[in-house]
Amino acid sequence: MFGTRSFSFSFERSALMMLVPCPHCGPRNNSDLRYVGESHARPDPNAVTPEEWRAYLYWEDNPAGSLRETWYCRAGCRQYFTVTRNTATNEFENHPLPGNKTGAVDPSFHYVSSSVSPSVPTTSNAAQETETNS
Amino acid sequence: MTTFRQFMSSSSLSTVKDAGTSAIDSLKKAKSDPSKPPRYSAAGLLVKGAKSEEWPRVWREHDLKKSYDVVIIGGGVHGLATAYYLATNHGITNVAVLDKAYLGSGGSGRNTAIVRSNYLTPEGVAFYDRSLSLYNTMSSDLNLNVMFSERGHMTLAHTDSALRTMRWRAEVNKLQNINSSVIDPQEVKKLAPSLDVSPNTRYPIQGALYHPPGGTIRHDAVVWGYARGADHRGVEMHQQTEVLDIMVEGGEGPDGKGRGGKVTGVKTNRGDISAPIVVNCTAGWATLISDMAGVKLPINTHPLQAAVTEPVKVFLPTVVVSGSLHVYVSQTDRGELVFGASVDPFATYSMKGSLEFTEELAGHVLELMPNIGRMRLLRQWAGLCDMTPDYSPVMGFTPVEGFLCDVGWGTYGFKAGPVSGEQMAECIATQAVPKLIAPFELARFERGDLVGEKGAAAVGH
To answer: B348 and chain A: CB distance < 8 Å anywhere?
Structure first.
């Protein structure tokens, strides 16, 4: 019910190493999770027009910067959650961890190394919000 | 019987001399007209080698003009082919191709150089078949050896359902007169003896879709060939020229951008250009460029990683693809094995490689070919793929007048380069959507009329 795309192919593997901050299980390798996609508010299926529904299904923001996105912790708590990640650096910005409901970033913990492809443009980091749902 | 010496002195030398003379003539002509660099030929190579002359630059540098008839963003196969066919087929030469790095620095230089036309939808098959026929004659058309090798393309099936999709694809292909058929494991073994077709593997090979016209090509040469051809016809290529903004007026969005607007030009790091037509031929950054014009796209950007081994003796005569094992393998003319995989499973603009990728890739390759266990990887790299919901591209007009798109190619972009350039050129010149690309227009996502091509993806994504 959450995603607009399906990456549920049976032999699916992750190729890019990254730790994803699950709010229930803590940092997990991204191969333990399934990427659901950009987090968009779903319109009311009973009130929506076909055009609006297609817009919800298909249009993507795809920024090179802050992105609110949904992950599914398939090998752990099996919960959906939403976090904000910088798509240019793969750093998670402001995320909750177990026992840390404020969502403050632990400065001693690095999710990915800081080397970044220099040619990638970055946009401003306006969205500093964190939200969990299930 | 003539001796070798007699033979050399009588016939061939004089022939070479004649050819050499004509090559010198053409070189002299070229010197008198610097805008027309000489054609490449074997005789020209001999003369150049004998005189130890410098070769002229393949394409020229220009100052950025204030206005062009058409501005193409992205100097890869798609952008350069569009420029080339605009100049060749339609006589539109006041064209600028802008690239923020060097020509062919994006997907055009990062793909695994495989071409094929055995797709799943009739729209896709017709389209890629035209591309394959353009690749077939490209070396003579562009006067540059693109090293097209029609070595056959084999897609392995490891499950019953995969075999069923292969049959479906083979029938669609045959209806469109494409040479494509399903073969059994024994025939697979004959075509590629190094593959393990025994039933005792974890994912036994149950058959394959064999497509003899598929093969490999030198992707850099394709870029250089189009760039050189376009340059000869008066198109200007501007490298290190980054587009910062697209000027649009009259639209309903902020700053007059968006639906109903009209393009007036682009802002670059080397100055502003006014142009009535701006074409987005980028990959990876397609969304960022379209955002500048206020056009929304149904695209997510994923990296795709590839790797290459040390060169060895030729042992793999065809291209081998395994969807279930997420890998495609071909051997280059130098003997290196080129491996590609599926796109990384989440959207990102980062092109960093990972050990996890090489580890899994090697595991899958060894399941197919256990005898190459001692080969070493030379390097790995990644390129950005623009994934659309239906795995088909976005081509043609957008809600902003004068802003055209040739984006969303996912993992198929290189194969489609020539035909999309040809069709986009026709689209720009005639201001009408050609029949071949009509199914791929952006408005299909508003109508919900998608062209599902996922079943023909090289590997499951």
So the answer is: yes
CB contact (8 A) between residue A13 and residue B326: yes
What is the pLDDT at residue A115? Answer: 39
Max Cα–Cα distance, chain A, nearest Å: 48
Q: For residue A125, give how far its alpha carbon lies from the nearest alpha carbon of chain B (Å).
A: 15
In our burial notation (b when 16+ CB lie closer than 10 A, e otherwise), range B63-78 reads ebeeebebbbbbbbbb
Chain A contact present for B448, CB below 8 A: yes
More confident residue, A2 or B198: B198
Round the average pLDDT of chain B to a whole number and report it.
87
> How far is B323 from chain A, CA to nearest CA, in Å?
10
Question: Tell me, what DSSP letter sits at residue B108?
Answer: G
Continuous segment of H or E residues that includes residue B417: helix B417-430
B459 in contact with chain A, both atoms CB, cutoff 8 A: no
Query: What CATH number did the domain enclosing A50 receive?
Result: 3.30.2270.10
pLDDT at A90 over 70: yes
pLDDT at B37: 64
All residues of chain A having their beta carbon less than 8 Å from the beta carbon of residue B298 are 58-60
Determine the CATH number of domain B141-216+301-387.
3.30.9.10
**CATH homologous superfamily for the domain B70-111+220-294+392-456:** FAD/NAD(P)-binding domain (3.50.50.60)
Distance CA B98, CA A41 (A): 37
Tell me the residue type at B432. A
Instruction: Judge whether residue B461 has pLDDT over 80.
Output: no
Over residues B12-31, mean pLDDT: 45
The tens digit of pLDDT for each residue in B75-97 reads: 999 999 999 999 999 999 999 99
Measured between beta carbons, which residues in chain B are less than 8 angstroms from residue A38? 300, 347
